[in-house]
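Open question from group meeting: does this chain pack into something compact, or does most of it stay loose? Before anyone orders reagents, we agreed to write out a predicted structure and look at it together. Recording both the input and the output here so the notebook holds the full record.
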Amino acid sequence: MEKRNLEQRCAIKFCVKLKENATETYEKLKWAYGEHAVSRAQVFRWHKAFLDGSKSVEDEPRSGRTYTSKTDENVTKMRALVRSDRCLTVRMISSELILNHQTVHNILTEEMGMRNICAKLFQKNLTNEQKENRRNVCLDLLERTKNDDFFSNM
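Structure tokens returned:
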């Protein structure tokens, strides 16, 4: 939870103890926090909760699906899939691995250090081996142009 929201919930709780109504509380929060104040509906929701006896300013634990998609196993599967075909899109990978689109995107960018260029996925940084290979190919091409008059036939 954002620190600012926690502060505002504490302020709402304080205003409830001072027996101020929700509208007065909302106006004070708007004055104090400006554009960063929580919404009017949120102020009314928390004001009612504190009036009803709620003591905690923290959110109640919610049920739902836990965030377990970004596992080492899924990262390994995705790495193998991307290596087999670099033309895969995020949508294709998510349907293949049955993962959320945003989860696939996060794994590709954060875990694997990749970005999208022309619908192909590339690593952001070359490995030392890739750099050396690129250097050798360039030197080889340069040598060919010197020896074979490569550009004179144009």
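Observations to bring back to the group:
Strands lie at 114-117, 120-123.
Residues 128-148 form the longest helix (21 residues).
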